[in-house]
Amino acid sequence: MKRVEIYTTRTCPYCIAAKALLTKKGVTFEETDVGADPSLRSAMMARANGRRTVPQIFIGGAHVGGCDDLHALDAAGKLDAMLADA
């Protein structure tokens, strides 16, 4: 599996939903909570083309987007292929 990174805050329902989908698929992910540290949010925004909302998800270093984007990839049958090792 490719490396999965997710930027979150503790109480964000979209973050919880995105993590639940990844967990359901058996994906191990690295979580960075940006809620209490403005420098972490700034780093996330720099990687996510200025997006400041959470979650922001990266698979294999590529920016996927947020929770809706992740679920759309799954619904389209594309998420499993993205997660698999090339």
Automatic annotation (TrEMBL):
Q: Which GO terms describe its molecular function?
A: glutathione disulfide oxidoreductase activity
Question: What are the residue boundaries of the Glutaredoxin domain, all occurrences included?
Answer: 4-64
Q: What does this protein do?
A: Has a glutathione-disulfide oxidoreductase activity in the presence of NADPH and glutathione reductase. Reduces low molecular weight disulfides and proteins.
Query: Where is the organism placed in the taxonomic lineage, from the top?
Result: Bacteria, Pseudomonadati, Pseudomonadota, Alphaproteobacteria, Rhodobacterales
Q: Which NCBIfam families match?
A: GRX_bact
Q: Which family does it belong to?
A: Belongs to the glutaredoxin family.
Origin organism is Paenirhodobacter hankyongi
Query: Which ranges form a coiled coil?
Result: none
State the name under which the record lists this protein: Glutaredoxin
